[in-house]
Automatic annotation (TrEMBL), chain B:
Cross-referenced HAMAP family: Acyl_carrier
Name of the molecule in the record: Acyl carrier protein
Organism phylogeny: Bacteria, Pseudomonadati, Pseudomonadota, Alphaproteobacteria, Acetobacterales
PTM (free text): 4'-phosphopantetheine is transferred from CoA to a specific serine of apo-ACP by AcpS. This modification is essential for activity because fatty acids are bound in thioester linkage to the sulfhydryl of the prosthetic group.
Gene3D superfamilies according to UniProt: ACP-like (1.10.1200.10)
Gene it is expressed from: acpP
Cellular component per GO, a single term: membrane
Species name: Acidomonas methanolica NBRC 104435
Key word Kinase present: no
KW Lipid metabolism (keyword) present: yes
GO molecular function list: acyl binding; acyl carrier activity
Amino acid sequence: MQSTGLTSGQRRVVVTGMGIVSPLGLGVERNWSRLLAGENGFGRISSFDASDLPAQVAGEVPAGPTESGGLTLSDWIPVKDQKKMDRFIHLGLVAATEAVEDSGWKPESEEDRCRTGVMIGAGIGGLQTIYEASVTVKEGRARRLSPFFIPSALINLVSGHVSIKYGFKGPNHSVVTACATGVHAIGDAARMIMLGDADVMVAGGAEAAVCPLGIAGFCSAKALSTHFNDTPEKASRPWDRDRDGFVMGEGAGIVVLEEYEHAKARGAKIYAEVIGYGMSGDAHHITAPAPGHEGAFRAMQNAVRSAGLTTADIQYVNAHGTSTMADDLELEAVERLFGDDARRLAMSSTKSATGHLLGAAGAVEAIYSILAIRDNVAPPTLNLDNPSRESVIDRVAHTAQERKIDTILSNSFGFGGTNASVILRGV
Amino acid sequence: MSEIADKVKKIVVEHLGVDESKVTPDASFIDDLGADSLDTVELVMAFEEAFSVEIPEDAAEKITTVKDAIDYIEKQKAA
């Protein structure tokens, strides 16, 4: 088959830096070790009083000293600047700082700065900021609205702040595709490098929707788990027969993508190569996936084709797997695509430990998948006690598994019927 | 220093995150205290809120130093 996607270009794209802020804490290595140990980041919602809402459980980024993996904002962002940003920007900036420092990329010439861009998105953006500003207006105090209200709420302002902080003057872009944002950001940014728009792109997603509007809104859409308010650690249970909705998480995942020769020339540490990317639209319903998750099927198929691979080449899938009824549809779509190769496949949903980070999910999960390649281990699906549907695919229930993994596929699907899959391979 | 001057100083320190010793009467918000145009808009709002005064836009534009702010508010309060 002729390669039509990422591998058809001369320029290869690799990951040279990673950063995560999630309910499992700050830092890529802390996240990974906690994930492999079967820990989770859930609790009763603490940032506001959720007692009048049906869903009272979430994955919140833990506050606390930086050295123990908690978020102490003043260690990252000057106090006077914090109020100019919604929380999703805070979380994005923290993860971007880890990723950029991890990459060691510090462009010193103007030309290098102009060849370095940013592509960080969010599914929703500054929801809490918009809520608070609305209250101010409702109270008849519209003239008292902060001049920072708009730039605090705008989704592309994570990209803006990262570029200002580091002087990155290349493409400054942002993705907004609901829960597919993180994968789209990585895939689109990789293509920008492939097409020559930049040599380095800081890409990913950030989200902070654990707030009254976010929780109440997804509650109304009947999307959140409501039966595990007293046992938060059990609420996110992808593919389990007792699952009853997703658990909202917050955080950010950011990668530094770099043209391969550029990375090699400066002796950068290379984690993985972005070798495939596929997208599709359902053209079906605003929130429900298409029958058979056929849109997801085509996104994965397009990704495999763009990588010039067959499904036999992929050992691990990080599922979208949100702990909703759609889990089984994704499973069916993966089984259909992989055919006989499904028997050798491991697939897990790390949302069982982090919750659903919406626009940040795809990027956080791509990073977990890269670590699966690095360490040859598949992270577990927690709480998968009784699968609602049997499968030949090993869903890595409860405990991480050592497996030979050199190529992974990671899925993210969003409201509006948008689907994205990315394929990464060890270098 | 007057009570108004003290309060103005406190608001400037809080909003611009600068050391109190830098907030001298002649200090310019933008040139000396690191504010940008949006910071100054927010500062004026904070003054309005703290002193229960209205500062119209054309007056706000002329408030560029700590002393400008103190003088304006003292005049409003005396009126």
